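Curious: can you check?
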Amino acid sequence: MYFFARVFLPFLLFVYIGIETYLRLQHTSLCGEVGCALAGELLRFDHIYLNYFGLAGVLSLIITGYRSLKSSFFETLFFVLLYSGIAFETTIISYQFIANPEPCLFCLSVFSSLLVIALFSQVKHFAVVLATVLFIFIGLNTLTIPQNRSFVTAPGLYLIQSATCSHCKKIKTYFSEHHIAYTPISAKEINARGFLKFVDISTIPVLIIKESSNMTILKGDQKIIAHFDAKNKEEVNPMPVQNSTLGLSSDFLAAGGDAGCALTITETPSCADDNTTPILQH
């Protein structure tokens, strides 16, 4: 029984990871789901190195598992490696469940295999293993982890706002009165806050206007309303209007006119003008 649990099962897992590693090197995979592709985006390095690490870890399990049949020292070492591997995989799987819309099936398979090995290797300690897995998952769920998804996807208006912000309410009322469709994005969203920090904006409301060829960012209720008022006047009395946003041409920062790269940032007056509401920093 111990040979089956500590040598044979780890050997099967080693073969499974080895096949996946070979396929990865051939630019294919046993895991063709979206979660498998997204899992690689969460790593700081190429995901193939994680496969190498897994092969080395499982090979160590096979060696220590075989030696554990006759040595208490190697038995202890076997369980240290096994439980460390389970904790490692639990952390990765838990993070994927939180950050991605679906987890990696390959990672789930490795994780499940390690649990089966732990179950057959030492049944009386398996409850402790499950408790450890559960508390790692709960611990990660208490953290604010950005989800690996996009908010600004299709052309349209996206308003980063807060339900308690008076300036945001002014914008939403204006949009409602003028029948302007938009997508609200809460300023509490970690991805939204990260985006605002990236472009060095510390106040809301912020409107993102995504078009097929460029993206415009307007900050502050006065600037946003003025933009649409001017647009309405142009529709009533059309006349050539030169782009004056920041005094720059429309193709500035457009990477030589490459479609989809333009980014226009319109600043608002300072906080002394009482035009924006600060985003609380945590």
Summary: Confidence is low (pLDDT under 50) at residues 243-276. The two ends are 53 Å apart (CA to CA). The longest strand covers residues 156-161. The chain has two domains: 2-141, 156-278.
